[in-house]
Amino acid sequence: PEKVLATFPMQIEAYAHFKLPSKLSLHVTFGTRTPTVGNESLTRVWAREHYLMWTQKPDENEGLYVRAGRFMPVVGLPFAEHPIYTRRYGGTQLWADTYGVNVSYVTPKYEAHATGFIKDPAIDPVEHYSGGAGYAEYRLTEKFALGALGMAEIGPDDMRFRGGITAKAYLSAIDLLVQGEFQFVNQLIDDTPTNPNGGAPQQFVGYLMFTRMLGTAFMLDVGLGHFDTNRQVGENERDCIDLNLHWFTTSHL
Q1: Measuring CA to CA, which of 7, 12, 85, 210 is 20 to 30 A from 24?
Q2: CA 53 to CA 125: how far, in whole Å?
C-alpha cells in the first residue's frame, strides 16, 4: 500500500591494479557486502577479489597467466549480471568467489582455463564448496566461437558435477551478438538423519542472450533463461526473460 520510490545498490565496488616487477601484478576489488550476523562491524566492507598474478606477456592480451588468491572460478560465460540463470544456478552466483589457483593460456584462436579452489575459510560464504573448474573456447572464425566447461564442487553434505557447452556468434549484417550456455548438473546429496535416503537430482541450466549496441554509449541485452531444478520431477521448471540497458559513460575514470 505504500507509495514510495526506493533505490538500493546491488553491488558497489572500486578496483585497483598494481604492476610489480618480474611480470607480477596485484589486483584488489574493494566493496560493501551483507554483514555476517554477530560480526556486523567487521564484515560490512571487504575485498571480494584479491590475487597476485604472473603474466607471460604483460603488455599483450595473450600468453600464459597464473594467479593465486580470491576470485571467481573461471567457467562458462562470465556475464556481468548476477541474476542471469547460468550465473545464479551455474556455479558462479554473486559473492561465490573462492580462494584458489588459476592457470590460463590465451591466444587469438583459442583459450583454456583451469582453476582449483577452496571455500573461504575466514567468513561464512555463499557457497560451501571446494573443487575444480575448467573451461576451453575455440574460435572457428573471427565471428563464431564454441566452448566446453566442466566443474566439480564438493561440499559438507553434497557434491555437484557440471558439464556444458557455450557458443558465441556475431551477426555483422545486423550488428547483433548472440551468446548461449547450457549446463547439465548432477548433484549427489549425502544421507542425513533428516534425509536418510539422500538424493541425486539432475538439473538443466540454459541461457541465451542477444546484445546490440545503440550508438556508442548504450548497449541493450535481451536474455532468455531456463532452469530445471530436477528433471525427474515434473512441472518444477522456471523460465525468465531479462532486459538490461547498459550506459557506458567513459571507459576509464
Answers
A1: 12
A2: 23
The average pLDDT across 113-131 equals 91
The DSSP string of 57-79 is STTSS-EEEEEEEEE----S---
- pLDDT for res 251: 64
Predicted confidence at residue 95, as pLDDT, reads 87
pTM surpassing 0.85? yes
Residue ranges of alpha helices (H) inside the chain are 85-88
pLDDT at 125 over 90: no
Mean pLDDT of 55-82: 94
- Residue 181's nearest CA partner among 168, 165, 170 is 165
d(CA 115, CA 74): 7
- Provide the β-strand partners of residue 177: 170, 211
Neighbours of 25 (CB within 10 A): 15
Q: Which amino acid is at 94?
A: L
What Å distances lie between residue 111 and 39, 70, 148, 153, CA to CA?
Answer: 41, 21, 11, 23
State the Cα–Cα distance between residues 112 and 144, nearest whole angstrom: 17
Across all residues in the chain, what is the average pLDDT? 92
Q: What span, in angstroms and rounded, lies between the C-alpha atoms of 235 and 231? A: 9
Cα–Cα distance list, 225 to 83, 100, 179, 238, 239 (Å): 10, 29, 12, 8, 5
Phi and psi, residue 200, nearest 5° = -145, 65
What average pLDDT score do residues 66-85 get? 94
Residue type, 193: P
Cβ atoms 117, 130 nearer than 8 A: yes
